[in-house]
Amino acid sequence: MERKTISIMKACELVGVSRRTIYNWLSAGKIEYVRTAGGSVRIFVDSLWRDPHNADRPAVQAAWQVEERNQA
Predict the structure, then answer these.
(1) How far apart are CA 1 and CA 71, in angstroms?
(2) Burial of residue 22, with CB atoms counted within 10 A of its CB: 0-12 exposed, 13-18 middle, 19 or more buried
(3) How far apart are CA 22 and CA 8, in angstroms?
(4) Is 24 exposed, middle or buried (0-12, 13-18, 19+ CB in 10 A)?
(5) Which helix (H) or strand (E) holds 11?
(6) Are 5 and 34 within 8 A, CB to CB?
(7) For residue 48, what pLDDT is reported?
(8) Which residues have C-beta within 8 Å of that of residue 45, sequence separation ≥ 6?
(9) Residue 34's CATH number
(10) Which of 72, 60, 71 lies closest to 11 in space, CA to CA?
(11) DSSP secondary-structure letter at 36?
(12) Are strands 41-44 and 33-35 parallel, antiparallel or unpaired?
């Protein structure tokens, strides 16, 4: 199964935090990402579901579900 990825800016919108916060989370290993062949960072959406301060609790599950409905 392929994991869905999004851009840093989309992650910012989805979670409601700044780019700096996303980069801090990346550096701290709180969210998972991959670099594309062109060097861009793509964030795994399922890693955003975890609260970066508490890995047991979803952080943006409700927001993601709204986003999925809007794209359908």
Answers:
(1) 20
(2) buried
(3) 7
(4) middle
(5) helix 8-15
(6) yes
(7) 83
(8) 3, 4, 5, 6, 64
(9) 1.10.1660
(10) 60
(11) -
(12) antiparallel
pLDDT over 90 at 10, yes or no: yes
Rounded alpha-carbon distances, angstroms, from residue 39 to 20, 34, 47, 53: 18, 9, 20, 28
Exposure letters 27-37 (e unless 16+ CB within 10 A, then b): eeebbbbeeee
The string of pLDDT tens digits covering residues 14-47 is 888 899 999 999 998 889 999 999 999 999 998 8
Quick one: pLDDT at residue 47? 87
Q: How many CB atoms are located within 10 Å of the residue 44 CB?
A: 16
Structural domain range at position 19: 5-71
Q: For position 14, what pLDDT does the model report?
A: 87
Give me the number of domains the chain comprises: 1
Instruction: Report the alpha-carbon distance of residue 18 to residue 48 in Å, rounded.
Output: 14
